[in-house]
Amino acid sequence: MSGSKIEFKNPVLKWVEYRLPIFSFIDSSVGSGYPTPRNLSYWWNFGSLAGIVLAIMVVTGIVLAMHYTPHVDYAFLSVERIMRDVNYGWLIRYLHVNGGSMFFIVVYIHMFRGMFFGSYKEPRELLWIIGVFIILAMMATAFMGYVLPWGQMSFWGATVITNLFSAVPFVGEGIVQWLWGGFSVDNPTLNRFFSLHYLLPFVIFALVFVHLWALHEHKSNNPLGIDIKGPQDTIPFHPYYTVKDLYGLGWFMMFYLFFVFFAPDFFGEPDNYIEANPLVTPLHIVPEWYFLPFYAVLRAFTDEFWFFSWFMSWVMDAKLAGVVAMFASVLIIALLPWLDGNKVRSMRFRPLSWMFFLIFIADCILLGYIGAMTAEEPYVTIGQWATLYYFAHFLVIVPLVSRLEKTGQPPESIAAAVTKKTEEV
Amino acid sequence: MNKIVLTAVMAFALGTGAAQAASNVPTPAAQKWGFSGIVGHFDQPTLRRGFQIYREVCSGCHGLRLVAYRNLKDLGFTGDEVKEIAAEHEVFAGPDEEGEVLVEGDLRMRPARPTDKFVNPFANEEAARSSNVGALPPDLSLMAKARKKGPDYLYALLTGYHEEPPEGFELSDGMYYNDYFPGHQVAMAPPLADEMVEYEDGTPATLTQHARDVVTFLAWTASPELQDRKRMGIKTLLFLLVLTGMMYALKRKIWSDLH
Ligand code: HEM
Q1: What pLDDT is stored for residue A422 in this prediction?
Q2: Res B7 pLDDT > 90
Q3: B38:A184 CB<8 A
Q4: Quick one: B59 and B151 in the same domain?
Q5: pTM of the entire structure?
Q6: Which ligand 1 atom lies nearest to the CA of residue A43?
Q7: How confident is residue A240, by pLDDT bands cut at 50, 70 and 90?
Q8: Phi, psi dihedral angles at B31 (to 5 degrees)
Q9: Residue ranges of the domains in chain A?
Q10: Spacing, Cα A47 to ligand 1 middle (Å)
């Protein structure tokens, strides 16, 4: 984040800049001093969108916390008080609730973008791995946030998920009671979840800062997946990409606010409008939609699952296998830079990879669908095959296809490609 | 013991057990509601009829603990009317100046005020259950949001009773057969019927009309912000549309020197 210093005529700016070069810093990060590939497509809008959603989440969250009471007897009522008696409380809460879903939509697209254009490859491996840490932190934040309104799904979701840790051999029970601060999900659990839910977004902020630090070292990848060769390949971030990001932001805000104003409970579960009751188990416990694919992986591992009984049952029970697989399904994404052995980044020049990429997306959607279903046939079997395919994609298909496929020839340079396109028109 | 419960929960949630429940009820038919859709709003006469039904029928068993009497001003009641409605109910008065909480052995009571929440028909859960063959009439404040397709489901439930269960269905004592209630056995007697209440505005007092009215009222208790929300939504989205159009023009202008 070095870069050229900018000169100021204004004495105040000059004074500040001499002591703290904050203006050059901003300019070289998101200003005219930051060179960006000139051919970025709209898929490159999603990183800045994620940053904006993060900011919205933090601001609305801080306001909500001013009115929220983290106590099992008052949490549900305090949320309803926000909805009914706090000025524009319903707006703040619906922005925050739907913002969570938007965050995952945006970041999932951002990740698939990275997969398609090979943005995880040398020299952006750390940028990618930091991204995986970000998604893990987002998941933890979202999970704990969902517990706070203390509805039925909050309570039972928390019970089921915290219970997963009891699968750990020997110390599992101990870990679970330690997480709970007691012998069930109860007031101490709610309190610590509130505390951590407030903390984690700032950890995400820090991670995003490092993410961008790494990004700015080698600059953005681009749809052609080729390196920047010189100034003719780049344009300054400002004004070109600031205005493009703002334009995309307009569409995104319309999408987001449509849900906030017209279908605010679309992503939610009706059961969470029933106050938590430890004595009544909901008929069907489901996590939020963005966890569903991982939830399907978790549930795929039953005693009857042939893969489990052939290969895993001698070291662990089915429950532990499910938990391990669920965490592995996220962590394995971090290994992509090494699983993929092809030097060509963009799948535009890798038709076979492109095809398997689309199948992989379909598999993720299928897993999400299965995650929302009750555990009965045919869903169980479909979920098990979809889970196997998920891991096979990373461990078999990507390593093999990337090393064996015939790739096309990317253009010489970004500038060459851009001028050629203009001439053709 | 604790461990057994947890294992049961796990098995249940993860579906390794044989947990499959109540998907045997039909999907409620979609109704046309004045409050749904982008320009949806609450019709005041409907809300007032719905409130009348709640007050004369449902309030015998169901509370509305999240709604205050003052909120009834949304339905067009004047301040004085709200005061009167509130004063029909009693709440604990707390200690008097001498710290006395009892009068003649009973807790001191006072009439409810507009700022009080709707007073529950039963003093506690035990009382509610003992008057309802052991079942608990749930609070209705959020009911329209607490079920899938809330309003359609409520309408279907209220109009979905049968005098006799179908052939071969074992109905327990004190239970009623309903098409839409999970498991079909509900402890609530059919609360509505034709001519259940007499409307002041002359609207025909049919079962379906009653159901529509009370469901609209319950949609309001669940989302009192609905009207403000949708109105603000339309303005905001129109504003954003214009702003995005301007951004698009600006983007084209700024990028035009590149090609
Ligand atoms: C809080 C969440 C996140 C924020 C705010 C964020 C922010 C950003 C921003 C502003 C950019 C530059 C613009 C762009 O290329 O779209 C970027 C690039 C990138 N992000 Fe993220 N990101 C987040 C999460 C993730 C995750 C979860 C991953 C992957 C696991 C990831 C992987 C990447 C990669 C590989 C790039 C470089 C893309 C390229 O140059 O082609 N990010 N991120």
Answers
A1: 64
A2: no
A3: no
A4: yes
A5: 0.92
A6: 16
A7: very high
A8: -100, 160
A9: 1-30, 41-285, 292-425
A10: 5
pLDDT, greater one: A55 or B10: A55
Cα distances (Å, whole numbers) of residue B61 to A43, A271, B32? 55, 22, 28
CA distance A25 to A337: 30
If pLDDT is split at 50, 70 and 90, which confidence band does B18 have? Answer: very low
A270 closest CB neighbour out of B15, B22, B148: B148
Q: What is the pLDDT of residue A351?
A: 96
Phi and psi of A157, rounded to 5°?
-60, -45
Name the nearest CA neighbour of B42 among B222, B180, B177. Answer: B222
Testing ligand 1's pocket by substitution, the residue of A215, A245, A340 carrying the most ligand atoms inside 8 A of its CB is A215
Tokens of A408: 């096309």
pLDDT at residue A330 in the model: 97
Same domain, B30 and B130: yes
Containing structural domain, residue B250? 226-259
Count the domains in chain B.
Answer: 2
Ligand 1 touching residue A156 (CB < 6 A): no
User: A75-84 and A46-67 helices cross at what angle (nearest 10)?
Assistant: 110
Is the pLDDT at B9 greater than 90? The verdict is no
Domain for residue B81, yes or no?
no
Check whether residue B57 and residue B15 sit in a common domain: yes
pLDDT digits (tens, 9 = 90+) for A179-219: 999 999 999 999 999 999 999 999 999 999 999 999 999 99
Measure Cα distances from A358 to A203, A221, A354, B37 in Å. Answer: 33, 21, 6, 35
Q: Which of these, A109, A44, A32, A97, lies nearest to A68 by C-alpha position?
A: A97
CATH of the domain at B48: 1.10.760.10
* Degrees to nearest 5, angle at CA A218 with A213 and A221: 110
pLDDT digits (tens, 9 = 90+) for A358-388: 999 999 999 999 999 998 999 999 999 999 9
Task: Among A53, A110, A234, A252, say which to mutate for ligand 1: greatest number of ligand atoms within 8 Å of CB.
Answer: A110
Residues of B in contact with A247 (CB under 8 A): 244, 247-248, 250-251
Residues B124 and B178 in one domain: yes
Q: Are residues B167 and B220 in the same domain?
A: yes
Closest-lying ligand 1 atom to the alpha carbon of residue A44: 16
| B38–A262 C-beta distance less than 8 A | yes
Ligand 1 centroid – CA B134 distance (Å): 56
User: Which residues in chain A touch residue B70, judged by CB atoms under 8 angstroms apart?
Assistant: none
Model confidence at B23: pLDDT above 60: no
Q: Strand B185-186 and strand B176-178: pairing?
A: antiparallel
C-alpha R_g of chain B: 24
Q: Do A274 and B9 touch (CB under 8 A)?
A: no
Closest CA to A54 of A248, A252, A202: A202
Dihedral of the alpha carbons of A24, A25, A31, A32, in degrees to the nearest 10: 40
Mark A10-44 as b/e (b = at least 16 C-beta within 10 Å).
eeeeeeebeeebebbbebbbbbbbbbbbbbbeebb
| Token pair for A363 | 């598999």
Phi, psi of A35 (to 5 degrees): -80, 135
Residues B127 and B243 in one domain: no
Virtual CA dihedral for B129, B134, B137, B143, nearest 10 degrees? Answer: 130
Answer yes or no: do B184 and B257 share one domain: no
| Positions of A marked active-site | 216, 220, 244-245, 288
The sign of the torsion formed by the CA atoms of A292, A297, A298, A304 equals positive
Domain A41-285 belongs in CATH node 1.20.810.10: yes
